[in-house]
User: What shape does this take?
Amino acid sequence: MSLTSYQHGLQKASDTANKAISVEASLAKLPPTCSPLPTLLKSFPLYISAAQSYSHLLSSGLVPPSDVSTVKKKWRLVLERAEKIKRRVEELGGQVGKASVGDEGEEKAVLRRGRKINSYEFEEWVEPSSREFDIGEEGRWKGDELALPHREGHVDWSESSNLSWTGFEEKMRGKGKGRCVVRQGIGADCSIAAALTVCLEHNRRWGTKLGEGSLWPKDVNGSPVQSQNGKHVLKLMLNGCWRSVIMDSLLPHDMSTGTPLYSLPYLLDSTSSTDLTSNTGQAWIPLVSKGLLMSLGGYDIRGSNPSLDLYSLTGWVPERISLRQGFQREKEWNRVYKAWERGKVLVTLGTGSETNQTLISLHAYAVLDMREEEGERILEIFDPGIQETSQHDIESRIADLKLEPRCIFTMTWDQVCTSFDELDLNWNRTLLPVTTIRHWAWSTPTSPEASLMIVNPLYHLNYTTPPGSSEIWLLLSQHTVSKDRILDDIALHIFDHHSSPPSKAACLTRVDTETQTPYSNNLHILVKHRLRRCSGTLLIIPSKDRGIFQTSFTLRIFAPPSSTLSLERISQSLPFNQTIENTLTSRTAGGNPGEPTYMFNPQYSLQLSEDSFRKNGILRVSVRGGKEIAWNVSIVWGQGERVFELEPKSILVGSGPYTYGAAYCQIEDIQPGTYTLVVSTFEPGQLGSYRLSVDSDLPVKLSNVALEGAGMFSRTVVGQWTQDTAGGRPSGGKYDLNPQIELILPSPTMIMARLYLPTPSPTPLNLTIFRRATGASLGEEIVTSGPYSDASSGVKINRVKLDAGVCIAVPSTYTSWEGGWKCLLWADVGFTAELRR
Assistant: This one.
């Protein structure tokens, strides 16, 4: 850049900087559903260009010595602004220097990143043409070789001579036909064998092609056929979309014996419901198993889950239900059995680390049948595993087809609920056919200590459902990168968005109460959300707790027929933001409003100033903390001062029932003014760090409200009203029996006091300070807390000046009541407070 003078260079740099500021300021005019990324990406290069202009000006020698510090300051300011813009872009999943087309472009980028799993690349699904499987000049196709570490050096990868692509269709179709199951085999996985078994049984009963319909090439009937060049393509749902798993037809065999080291299908003996007879030779089964194992990282995986494998293979919605806590067996049987009779659900079971002698620990089982007989509820269960511990016995039994005779057995529903740990379900998507989907990513924290800085995206769901529909399903799936990377703890928070007359301000409230943390490190989280009305708006927050990596996710929503769904991400870039990181201590962890210690919770003065562009504004408040703690945030008509009692009429907006890990509230038409913001946990005494963030399109100023008595000398006296000291009110005739606190004041001072009950009770209290008379008796009354009150925060003596000397404070109840009490006293000078009785 050629500069003719100092003024010329300064003008050019200032013009560029002002243009960058103007572009960034336009964020305030964006509608809530508009992505801020395009605007941020537009302002970033302008700030960089302005910084370069200031730098060039400084190096030109044209800047007068008296102005050098001023120009350097401007140079640093635009650089700092550029760095903040860059961090904000990365938090939203973008990257500076890359072209972007808003949310659509970012979602495509998420899916592109999701193609790489366990060092393999699985591109988005495109149905292959038949020519891909012909033998060309290249000859037979060879894919990536999968690892079998525990048999390294003893594996022969070859096509099996015992498998067939034809001849089994007639045996398998229809309820009266033969039944086929899949045995685990050496080097295979029990969950995949169980998943393929329930697919085979569903195909037999209902004429479907679950599993086999996912493998290419196919014939005209949609059944898999042998590839001429050895190449096969498996269609799997991976990392947010259907993807292609490309593999060859080679399967692992023991090098010395030729024993298959993969899952094989077997027919049930027609004369027995529990014995297996022969290998059906269905060649597609070990190939589908190979493709699933490839997506999971190879044959050496630590284990999977049938519902996850079935979701990958069929797209049927996965649901994992613990049978150990909060399980309603009658309700669940009715729900599952009703769907089972219509072929709308696949059922598998899982055991935990401890189980009875009949079952194998940490093992997957397939449910072949559910029925009701003579008032009893029966499940027919298949064990795909091999129970012997000797490797030699396993191989010889497979070779001789001498399999465990109790591979199929029946149990009652009550026995299942007490013997297994997990009920795994996959639901046919036709039950809730209306769907919408979004992809995004949680940002990478700058350090493990900054994990609370992870930005959780917000979504508005506008819905309409037909009369009688009461439920929608939300499925949150985190994307995997490697089998060696631990999954993050994730959760879905859902808030009801409604208008609250008479203010007509749109508010958010929790629609249900969380009784335990919703966070889980499962791959998928399914939330079945009950709707209060046939149309409305929900705020949905996919939440991640801590973690050190960027994690992508997919959010799917399922609704009944004739519903409409519109899911849009909300821009979180309002022009004014203030964030505070703080820690709950033993002094400030006051608990919920029903606790007398609620008044000690962290409180903030929230000042919203008038803006020349608008009268009222949008306010969004979020709290992030430990996932094991239930949080709440409330905006109160408190004029920026400490709130001691939280009454419903005093709450402008709140996050509703306490939610684990995070709390969020929003109001879209708030007036400028000063409010009190309260952060609390459900249980008092819960300690931990949290991050409070306030966003608005009005200027925001957030400041801490000091604890009561801050800056003064304090004393705490704890006592009990007993049978001997519960004197009651003065008119009761026994007032002198009440406990007495002796105050020794070395000099005149301002004093303040509060009396409350540590354990909530509707007992009216009073605190009165007297001069000490001769003989240590009560003298003249100096000050009182006023009429007896049963407020949960107790009673208070406001600041009053006392002369030097000895005084006596008397805590009392209106009637003779026995129980504990606590008195807090503050003074401007050091003083002594001792309980006399």
User: Anything to note?
Assistant: The chain has five domains: 6-100, 145-427, 432-569, 576-704, 713-835. Confidence is low (pLDDT under 50) at residues 387-405, 499-513. The longest helix spans residues 68-91.
